[in-house]
Amino acid sequence: MEFLYAIFTILATLLLMLFICFLALLVKIFTGKSIKNPKHPPVAGTVLNLLLNFNRLYEYLTEVAEKHQTFRLLAQDQSEIYTTDARNIQHILKSSFDMYTKGQYLQGIANDLFGQGIFVVDGVNWKQQRKLASFEFSTRMLRDFSCDIFRKNAVKLITTVSQSSMANDIIDIQDLLMKYSLDSIFKVGFGADLNCMEGSNSVGSTFIKAFDDTTSLIYWRYIDPTWKVQRLLNIGFEASLAKNVKYVHRFVQEVISKKRDQMEMQQNNDKEDILSRFLIESKKDPDKMNDQYLRDIILNFILAGKDTTANTLSWFFYMLCKNPQVQERIVQEIRETIEGNSIDEFVENTTDEALEKMHYLHAALSETLRLYPAVPVDGRCAEADDILPDGYKVKKGDNVYYIAYAMGRMTNIWGHDAKDFKPERWLNNGCFQPESPFKFIAFHAGPRICLGKDFAYRQMKIASIGLLRYFRFKLADEKRAVAYIPTFTLHVNGGLHLLAISRPD
């Protein structure tokens, strides 16, 4: 009995401490935030609302944004400001670029995995990586090399889907696209063959899972106020996160070491893949661009190149299944533009010249990104007190987020049919008409606009053209709800299960 009494006493004490901590958290959240001051954005709740609505996070933010274009969620030390106002977005991403940074809050959450990579850092480190990456992405050699890899892997993708189609098997198109994207990004980025699509490399599949689990667990930190305690004690989600981060870092480090050894043996500095070119550059400043620095660059590159492309294509095929008339119109455009007697010949003919003619496909991909942006929410931290263009005040240390997911559904931005999938909204006399990047924020905007935008469109077009030329897709279960996993990128929860029906030649 004494033992049970002791256990009960300990549990009661812990619960009391948790309750006291929760009350202290509430006091800190509501203290000194100018809650009723009309000069600050209206308060829509606290960051605890994000926890309560986590499984439908972006719908929740959209519902609030429909009431207030700019609003606040109160946090412990600052306000979390959210906006769908394009004027505010242009202000923080371009007009006042130097005043808004990634900030210590985001860096503290994400740098366990991404370290000093381009998506996390500011200042000199960002400028150095941006300048080098910008130069590399602009080279004709890299563009030609990447498109060649995209085409070769597209043939493998078509072959894999064909096998499932002939067996009348259900395919998880998201899983296949993740493997296609990772195979492509590793070959273009690091000159390495993972062969995930062929299933001959279990290490590659293990890496995919570890990387995806890591990004999901890191994203959880945004809404879990106990994550620092868990990390300190190495328990709960943080214990799993630490294990995955260690595996991912070790995997990438091995890639770097193998590539360096290959380059030393070959003694050839005319390299096509990005890692080789970074390794050549690192010889100029080996102290700065050490293996850890290169590792961080690589992990940021993987996040940008794998998840965004594969996720967007997954939502694209989901939209085509829900809108079969759009699917057939794209197929018509493909048949009118590209010829080929065999799969290899057809895919080889998906040249830059052919891709540029496919305005409707470009519009459909852009419409997918409007409704299902690869990065649904992003933001910056105010380094000084400021006033946004809509008149609301921002305090130093406040985080200002722009909600791309909600923006795509705002009738004041896109009209009464904002929630409809309508590629025609992007066309003017049959030609693609781009929108302001501060309105269509899928690739961000300002000095930090996505360097890989054109690469992403090319990869998505080559893959989708090949698949749609040879197969008609439909949902395996029309009644199954398709939802997302709240993480850095918009991932389909549980995969996207489709049937692929062969098209007649």
TrEMBL record:
<dbReference type="InterPro" id="IPR036396">
    <property type="entry name" value="Cyt_P450_sf"/>
</dbReference>
<dbReference type="Pfam" id="PF00067">
    <property type="entry name" value="p450"/>
</dbReference>
<comment type="similarity">
    <text>Belongs to the cytochrome P450 family.</text>
</comment>
<keyword id="KW-0812">Transmembrane</keyword>
<dbReference type="GO" id="GO:0016705">
    <property type="term" value="F:oxidoreductase activity, acting on paired donors, with incorporation or reduction of molecular oxygen"/>
</dbReference>
<feature type="binding site" description="axial binding residue">
    <location>
        <position position="450"/>
    </location>
    <ligand>
        <name>heme</name>
    </ligand>
</feature>
<keyword id="KW-0479">Metal-binding</keyword>
<protein>
    <submittedName>
        <fullName>Abieta-7,13-dien-18-ol hydroxylase</fullName>
    </submittedName>
</protein>
<dbReference type="InterPro" id="IPR017972">
    <property type="entry name" value="Cyt_P450_CS"/>
</dbReference>
<dbReference type="InterPro" id="IPR002401">
    <property type="entry name" value="Cyt_P450_E_grp-I"/>
</dbReference>
<dbReference type="GO" id="GO:0004497">
    <property type="term" value="F:monooxygenase activity"/>
</dbReference>
<dbReference type="InterPro" id="IPR001128">
    <property type="entry name" value="Cyt_P450"/>
</dbReference>
<keyword id="KW-1133">Transmembrane helix</keyword>
<feature type="transmembrane region" description="Helical">
    <location>
        <begin position="6"/>
        <end position="27"/>
    </location>
</feature>
<keyword id="KW-0408">Iron</keyword>
<dbReference type="GO" id="GO:0005506">
    <property type="term" value="F:iron ion binding"/>
</dbReference>
<dbReference type="GO" id="GO:0006629">
    <property type="term" value="P:lipid metabolic process"/>
</dbReference>
<keyword id="KW-0472">Membrane</keyword>
<keyword id="KW-0560">Oxidoreductase</keyword>
<dbReference type="GO" id="GO:0009805">
    <property type="term" value="P:coumarin biosynthetic process"/>
</dbReference>
<keyword id="KW-0349">Heme</keyword>
<keyword id="KW-0503">Monooxygenase</keyword>
<dbReference type="GO" id="GO:0020037">
    <property type="term" value="F:heme binding"/>
</dbReference>
